[in-house]
Amino acid sequence: xxxxxxxxxxxxxxxxxxxxxxGPMGMALVGAWFGFANPLLHFPPAILLLPAALILTSxxxxxxxxxxxxxxxxxLPGYAASLYWLAIPxxxxxxxxxxxxxxxxxxxxxxxAAYAGLxxxxxxxxxxxxxxxxAMLATGLLWASLxxxxxxxxxxxxxxxxxxxxxxxxxxxGLAAWIGGFGLSAVLVSLSHSLLAGRxxxxxxxxxxxxxxxxxxxxxxxxxxxATASVxxxxxxxxxxxxxxEAMQSEILAAYLDLSFKAVDKNAPEILIWPETAxxxxxxxxxxxxxxxxxxxxxxxxxxLAGAPAYSAPMEPGAPxxxxxxxxxxxxxxxxxxxxYDKEHLVPFGEYVPLGQWLxxxxxxxxxxxxxxPGRNAAPLKTGSLAMGLxxxxxxxFPELAQxxxxxxxxxxxxxxxxxxxxxxxxxxxxLHLSILRAVEQNRSIIRATNSGISxxxxxxxxxxxxxxxxxxxxAHDPAIELLTETTFYHEHFYFIHAxxxxxxxxxxxxxxxxxxxNHT
Length: 521
Fold this sequence. Notes:
Blueprint: H1 7-12, H2 17-35, H3 49-60, H4 64-82, H5 87-92, H6 98-101, H7 103-125, H8 133-152, H9 176-197, H10 205-219, E1 227-235, H11 240-243, H12 249-267, E2 271-273, H13 288-300, E3 304-312, E4 323-331, E5 337-342, E6 381-383, E7 386-392, H14 399-407, E8 412-417, H15 427-442, E9 446-450, E10 456-458, E11 464-465, E12 474-483, H16 489-492, H17 494-520
Parallel strand pairs: 1-2, 2-3, 7-8, 8-9
Antiparallel strand pairs: 1-12, 3-4, 4-5, 6-7, 9-10, 10-11
């Protein structure tokens, strides 16, 4: 057998001290934990260790089955550790004892690790050509294809994408405007591959990829936006255990209105943004609470966007009597209802229970007699110069929803959320990092208003203004949030770019595998 064809033997002797010290599983654990937001230290470049560990595992595997199993076991501890916070809402609000709640991060981590196993199978196919530059491109495209699949399979879970790890360094995110977050993940995997497996002149691929990541920021020319808006956000910091207590509804409404009056007196904004379900009552019903809200907004004299639960009565045969919606209302300066948006992509086990008839012991986290249903009115909410594309909570992690809002005419995106479910964990920060990617992908500012933090104004380049801490009542204000209409290359070619990932990945993997077999023979 020709030595030239044996990538396995040459790479298994890689002299990296970190590989010898930690091993692939340790590399993946360190890379995932410190690469993604965590309570200790977030160092974005650490994420390169995760794909490097999986590539190394693939090169050492003896068969496709071995590659999948080894990749799965290598990635599982890192993913499960990074998702530790899933146990908090499941225990505190879902009614499960710790004995059943603690395995939840492992179960969801296992789903992500399965994709890592598939990645290792693909890399194993081309192990004899692992030092070829096209192999580095192929592994990146394969990773992007798997992140894209994860975005849709089983309702989608686009959490812990590689690109989100770089959000604290917005100068590295510019490529997302051209190839999206999944494409940026592909570049990170190719960079990791080149650092691990590059030999001779192919090591030059690594600095070229680093320069490619930085190039959009280096070439970006600051331009004054054609239009801006003065916006204030209200972070009410309502305790999740009290939020749905009927005896507390008046106090919660009063707290938000009090902060709103202070914001108007101090900042004179054009609009106030309240977070998801800031009104913990059915605003559509005539009640003292609804009247108090309308009178309060009329006293403020400016529009208010606020979240609330809502319901409707489906007309379909066999449908339940009522279904619930997670709604954002836009109220005019006189307290009148101008329009609303109902959340399209619901949270599994949070707003509905998938396969509920087979999982009767699991209750949804949001209280209520009926399950939530997705809305159908996706148009941006408009007032004055603002055309606000709404992304409620979890919706900010899905690039296709931000794409849809911009396509419908949104000149700014608004993400209202309630991350109080997750306590003082890294979940709110991970959620924020995914929202940052949506801003860069679509060239839109994002107004991110949350109940308990982290609230922030996200600029189209991914930088943050007005970032609030966790679990404090706060007013955040931006006197000149950018209102943009220009679209990115990624937006204009959204479906083509997403389709190109798997097509090019399969083509390159097939070509490299075939050439590798010829050389081996």
